[in-house]
Design goal:
Elements: H1 4-23, E1 31-34, E2 39-41, H2 42-58, E3 63-66, E4 80-87, H3 89-93, E5 100-107, E6 110-118, E7 123-128, E8 134-135, E9 138-139, E10 152-155, H4 164-175, E11 180-181, H5 187-195, E12 201-208, H6 209-221, E13 225-230, E14 237-243, H7 249-253
Parallel strand pairs: 3-4, 10-11, 10-12
Antiparallel strand pairs: 1-2, 4-5, 5-6, 6-7, 7-8, 8-9, 12-14, 13-14
């Protein structure tokens, strides 16, 4: 595979960052920015810096796009790491052990590898372009569930994505059709759970590229589908519908 070495570097960086996050999990964390429905920790920036240092040691000419920093002057042809140092920051801050480190590599605008590491479960989801998606080195695939009544879904419900009453109505509409709704608080882990057959679909009205770049290639390699509709001019934020490729998700979303 063409990017196996880069994947090994990404996994090493993710695991090193994850070890720090796990070791500091029970600390009182400094908040750099408190938003209405989100939190930015000083540890986000520290973790991103750690990851960038590891990646740059191996590939000093690669650019970076992340929640905490972007190389605004990088040429479009330059390979670009897409990093979310803590996907699930609110969980982390509140002591909920559901979060991950997410690293993807984009070349010529195409994602060629993904690594999502959950340090609390020691679960590392990986794939390189053209290869098999794996969880801790063992191949994974999406579920075979094709009936909504059998499905477990994540549904964004409009509390902070701007959809308001429409989002709540959609949440209620879908909830009545499926077996269970589960909200992890981490987009990357949710998508990897679909890739591993644990979840079946994910619908969210507002998500950032770094939240799902690594998990998307893992999901699609595992047989799943993801549709992303940008809602900002730079294409870095938008809405997502992701599923195992078997559920009639679009029909299920239609509100009467």
């Amino acid at each position: 595979m063409g990017y196996t070495q880069q994947l090994q570097v990404a996994e090493f960086a993710a695991r090193k960052a994850g070890a720090v996050l796990r070791a500091r999990f029970h600390e009182v964390h400094a908040v750099d920015e408190a938003l209405a429905h989100d939190i930015k920790l000083r540890l986000d920036k520290e973790t991103q810096a750690l990851i960038e240092a590891e990646l740059a040691a191996a590939y000093p000419d690669y650019a970076v796009l992340g929640e905490e920093r972007a190389d605004a002057t990088a040429d479009a042809a330059t390979p670009r790491w897409v990093i979310d140092p803590i996907d699930g920051t609110v969980n982390y801050f509140y002591g909920i052990p559901i979060f991950c480190v997410s690293i993807a590599l984009s070349v010529q605008g195409q994602t060629v590898l993904g690594c999502v590491y959950d340090p609390m479960q020691d679960e590392c989801f990986t794939v390189v372009q053209g290869g098999a998606p794996c969880l801790n080195g063992k191949p994974i695939c999406v579920s075979s569930r094709s009936r909504m009544a059998d499905a477990v879904l994540f549904i964004g419900h409009g509390t902070h994505d701007g959809s308001g009453a429409t989002g709540i109505a959609r949440f209620a509409h879908i909830s009545a059709q499926v077996r269970k709704i589960r909200i992890l608080g981490s987009a990357a882990l949710t998508l990897c759970y679909i890739a591993a057959g644990r979840f079946d679909a994910y619908i969210e009205n507002r998500i950032n590229l770094w939240d799902f770049a690594a998990a998307r290639i893992i999901l699609e390699a595992a047989g799943g589908c993801l549709e992303y509709t940008p809602t900002t001019a730079d294409g870095l934020s938008g809405s997502v519908i992701a599923w195992n490729g078997k559920l009639p998700i679009h029909a299920a979303l239609q509100l009467s």
